[in-house]
Write a structure and sequence with these properties.
Blueprint (H helix, E strand, L loop, with lengths): L1 H31 L3 H12 L9 H27 L4 H7 L6 H18 L4 H11 L6 H15 L17 H21 L9 H24 L5 H19 L2 H14 L2 H6 L1 H7 L9 H18 L4 H6 L2 H15 L5 H18 L4 H15 L8 H18 L2 H5 L4 H5 L4 H17 L7 H10 L1 H4 L7 H7 L3 H18 L7 H16 L3 H21 L16 H13 L7 H17 L3 H17 L4 H17 L5 H16 L4 H11 L14 H26 L6 H15 L7 H16 L7 H20 L1 H8 L4
Helix pairs in contact: 1-2, 1-3, 2-3, 2-5, 3-5, 4-5, 5-6, 5-7, 6-8, 7-8, 7-9, 8-9, 8-10, 9-11, 10-11, 11-14, 13-16, 14-17, 16-17, 17-18, 17-19, 19-22, 22-26, 23-27, 26-28, 27-28, 28-29, 28-30, 29-30, 30-31, 30-32, 31-32, 32-33, 32-34, 33-34, 34-35, 34-36, 35-36, 36-37, 36-38, ...
Subcellular location: Cytoplasm; Endosome membrane; Golgi apparatus, trans-Golgi network membrane; Prevacuolar compartment membrane
Main location: cytoplasm
Keywords: Cytoplasm, Endosome, Golgi apparatus, Membrane, Protein transport, Transport
Length: 798
């Protein structure tokens, strides 16, 4: 059916064009022979083709444009006729004898154009006569194209300032009156199209109307081009008359398009000075009109106008643009009770964008917009509509992007209240956006109040807003994507903690306490991500306070290392609820090292004690035990704060646990690592050669036992790597001057390794062979180097 209709329409158009061309041919012949009567006859017949009602607006336009081209030629002929003695008044009378009204009016408009150009009558009289007579065509499509033709032929003949048609009898007001009257009649015809035909063709009619809208809008463009339309005339006459027509037509399509036209075609300064009038029409529009887009475009234009020059900014304050826009938006939302929340929020986003561009220094305006948004959202459930949440994220992101400073956003009392209306997922997204803004701009959080406000703002990442414990939540959604997103969110919080800083230790300690309060409330799963950065932030403060061991000036609240270490101890204990014993152990050792630098022996000893307790009671995995014991040994080796008794206790514990590891190779490596606990190179360091030798001999015995076990279980000895590693330890202490490590002991170990490698039961291992060869080359190098070290190595035969 549709294809048949299209084919019919193409056929009707072809017929119309053929009829038009046929009559145009005879019209041209009459024009060439200066036969006025035949010219009028055939032109009227040609224009009769425009009387059709069977064509869609799109097809009718094709036919109209062909007729328009022919009328241009006819107009030139009429001009020549006046020169040949035929008066324009006679022509004006003569064309009115055409049989049908539509051809008659087209011819009348054509002659009228020549009449105005001749200046034999005031332009306003001719224009008034034409615009009135065009009322004779009330068919919407035919009437619109006729009036469009009238507008086209008269636009360069309006009595405007500086125009040749301006005179005593003709004023700018006459030109304005003509265009306004033509606009009003065209709009009525355009709106009438909506109510013709059956309901089932409503969509088709709306499409056809959309194709014709520019014919109506051109009148407003003509108005904007009239030089004489100054601000006063626009304010007193043009805008009120146009808005009256817009409001009274009560048509959704017309109202939206015409409001958009007004905003686009007239100057920005006019909009600013007539803001109240323009905005006053908005609440009177139909509820279905997309007023959000209209107001958004208006605010965008005004924003661009403000950005164009600093000189115009006082005008915005003078006319109270923000107050008027804010008030108008409130009235529109109130009038359109069915407006969805996303539409309301969109309006506030546009208003906020306008405010940030025009009045960036007025934080009270920004907060007022956010407050209005809160008022709109209050009493409603949290937004879960994706479009609505995107609008709120845009609303909250705008101040961050404008000021590049979270500190300014924290001053806005309504900012967190808007965030509260987001669902849990979007709240997290917004919190990440806030953190990214802080990181991008390298913003420092320098006061406890700011930290409190910020962490309250990003609470969606710190804890679960819906009350579900995070560990249950994550265990339920245990697939990799959810885990990865969760880790990224918590890593963002961890990076944020490193942005905390204040040169005043007192304030810095307050900041740490505030953040600690928030992150400890976040549930055990988050602690593994958020506690470590907080610990290192506090340790950074400890380093700054290094040397203080008590209250300053007797103030109980002063920040001292002791007080911070107490706080650190309590914070690390919270990790046991995760549980994360390996992480807690590492942090205890970090704190012990910091206490060592502050010369606080009891504190350092307590942290080591806690580390050993965790090792004994919580670290069960054999690999984790190996890592943990090496961390303990390495940290203890760097400690210089301990007295003899405490150091002996800790080293004894370390060596004891080293020998109790599950696998023999792990035992061996841990035991020879313990040898460094008894020989420290510092000036006041421990140098106990005998105990070093005991550790190395014990490591040898364990390595030998490992070889024997491998021989029993696999029928062949394992690689000699352990022996080579122990040999390197012997060489290290030999060079450091340990008297218990002799060249004879090294010689014996070299021979032992050589024998083991030549044994048939030893498993070949290229890496072990290369390691041993490198060690022998090192010994040879030291012998050849000469000097005191060369003499020491001289007796070793390789």
């Amino acid at each position: 059916m549709v294809s048949e209709g299209i084919e019919d329409e193409e056929k009707w158009l072809a017929e119309g064009i053929a009829g038009l061309q046929h009559n145009a041919f005879y019209m041209h012949r009459a024009l060439d022979s200066n036969n006025l009567r035949d010219a009028l006859k055939y032109s009227a017949q040609m224009l009769s083709e425009l009387r059709t009602s069977r064509l869609s607006p799109h097809k009718y336009y094709e036919l109209y444009m062909r007729a328009f081209d022919e009328l241009r030629k006819l107009e030139m002929f009429f001009k020549e006729e006046t020169k040949r003695g035929c008066t324009i008044i006679d022509l004006y009378e003569l064309v009115q004898h055409a049989g049908n009204i539509l051809p008659r009016l087209y011819l009348l408009c054509t002659v009228g154009s020549v009449y105005i150009r001749s200046k034999e009558a005031p332009a306003k009289d001719v224009l008034k006569d034409l615009v009135e007579m065009c009322r004779g065509i009330q068919h919407p499509v035919r009437g619109l194209f006729l009036r469009s033709y009238l507008s086209q032929v008269s636009r360069d003949k309006l009595p405007d300032i500086g125009s040749e048609y301006e005179g005593d009898a003709d004023t700018v007001m006459d030109a304005v009156e003509f265009v306004l009257q033509n606009f009003t009649e065209m709009n009525k015809l355009w709106v009438r199209m909506q109510h013709q035909g059956p309901v089932r063709e409503k969509e088709k009619r709306e499409k056809e109307r959309s194709e014709l809208r520019d014919l109506v809008g051109k009148n407003l463009h003509v108005l904007s081009q009239i030089e004489g339309v100054d601000l006063e005339l626009y304010k007193e006459t043009v805008l009120p008359r146009v808005l009256e027509q817009v409001v009274n037509c009560k048509d959704e399509i017309a109202q939206f398009y015409l409001m958009d036209c007004i905003i686009q075609v007239f100057p920005d300064e006019y909009h600013l000075q007539t803001l109240e009038t323009l905005l006053g029409a908005c609440p009177q529009l139909q509820p279905t009109v997309d007023i959000k887009t209209v107001l958004s475009q208006l605010m965008e234009r005004l924003s661009n106008y403000a950005a164009s020059s600093a000189e115009v900014l006082p005008e915005f304050l003078q006319v109270e643009a923000f107050a008027k826009l804010s008030n108008a938006i409130g009235k529109v939302i109130e009038a359109q009770v069915d407006m969805p929340v996303v539409g309301s929020i969109g309006l506030y986003v546009s208003l906020l964008t306008f405010t940030l561009r025009v009045h960036p220094d007025r934080l009270d305006y920004v907060d007022q917009v956010l407050g209005a948004c809160v008022k709109k959202l209050s009493g409603k459930a949290k937004l879960e509509d994706s479009r609505g949440t995107k609008q709120i994220v845009a609303l909250l992101s705008a101040p961050l992007e404008k000021y590049n400073d979270i500190g300014i956003a924290l001053k806005l009392s309504n900012y967190p209240r808007v965030m509260d209306h987001l669902d849990s997922g979007t709240n997290k997204v917004m919190a990440v956006v806030i953190i990214q803004s802080i990181m991008k701009n390298n913003t420092c959080i320098s006061t406890a109040d700011k930290a409190e406000a910020l962490f309250e703002l990003i609470k969606g990442l710190i804890k679960d807003l819906d009350g579900t414990p995070v560990d249950e939540d994550i265990s339920f959604f245990c697939f990799s994507l959810m885990r990865r997103i969760f880790k990224e969110e918590q890593s963002s919080v961890a990076r944020l903690i490193h942005m905390l800083h204040n040169d005043d230790p007192e304030e810095m300690l307050k900041i740490i306490c505030v953040v600690r309060k928030h992150i400890l409330a976040g549930g055990p799963t988050r602690l593994a991500f958020t506690v470590p950065p907080l610990i290192f932030c506090a340790l950074k403060l400890v380093r700054r306070l290094q040397g203080q061991d008590g209250d300053v000036d007797g103030e109980e609240t002063s920040a001292t290392p002791k007080k911070i270490f107490q706080l650190l101890h309590q914070t690390i204990e919270a990790l046991l609820s995760v549980p994360a014993p390996e992480l807690a152990l590492r942090l205890y050792l970090q704190c012990a090292e910091a206490a060592n630098d502050c010369d606080l022996e009891p504190v350092a000893y307590e942290f080591f004690t806690q580390a050993f307790i965790l090792y004994e009671e919580e670290v069960a995995d054999s690999k984790a035990q190996v890592t943990a014991i090496h961390l303990i040994i390495g940290t203890l080796q760097r400690m210089n704060v301990f007295g003899v008794e405490n150091r002996d206790t800790l080293t004894h514990k370390s060596t004891g646990y080293s020998a109790k590891l599950l696998k023999k190779p792990d035992q061996c490596k841990a035991v020879y690592a313990c040898s460094h606990l008894f020989w420290v190179d510092d000036q006041d360091g421990v140098k106990d050669g005998e105990r070093v030798l005991l550790c190395l001999k014990r490591a040898l015995r364990i390595a030998n036992a490992a070889q024997q076990m491998a021989n029993v279980t696999r029928g062949s000895s394992g690689p000699v790597t352990l022996f080579v590693e122990i040999l390197n330890k012997y060489l290290y202490f030999f060079e450091k001057g340990n008297p218990q490590i002799t060249s004879a002991a090294i010689q014996g170990l070299v021979e032992l390794i050589t024998t083991e490698m030549q044994s048939d039961t030893t498993t070949p291992d290229p890496s072990a062979d290369a390691f041993f060869s490198s060690t022998l080359r090192y010994i040879q190098f030291q012998k050849q180097k000469g000097g005191a070290m060369g003499e020491k190595y001289e007796s070793i035969k390789v």
